[in-house]
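ingest -> validate -> predict -> emit
validate: passed (alphabet ok, no gaps, 115 aa)
predict: started
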Amino acid sequence: MSSVASVTTERPARYGKQLVGHLGRRAGGEWSAETESGWVQLGDLGRAELTAETDTLVLQVFGPDAEAIERLEQVVGRHLVRFGTKDKLAVAWVRDDGTPGTEQRFSDPEPMHAG
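emit:
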């Protein structure tokens, strides 16, 4: 299963690199400045792939089931929103079956941990 979000930002590569660097510390990840894309493994939960486009950071998460996809959306989305607080980033996910996923916004008060 997978889910995708396109996040409007003036600094997509900066946020992509920051996400990969932070989330990839535990299970691995890599950011390519040349292709402005990267990936991060989030343990057994799944994987995230990130691509910087003009004024957009595209996030895609892959997991074994709907529960994992929802958790991946939360982890990746909340971290991005936290990193981009001053830019008031908003993340809205769409699942591979076309249904809406979760949403994260800079005002979300919930904790940022992945565990």
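Helices lie at 12-27, 66-83.
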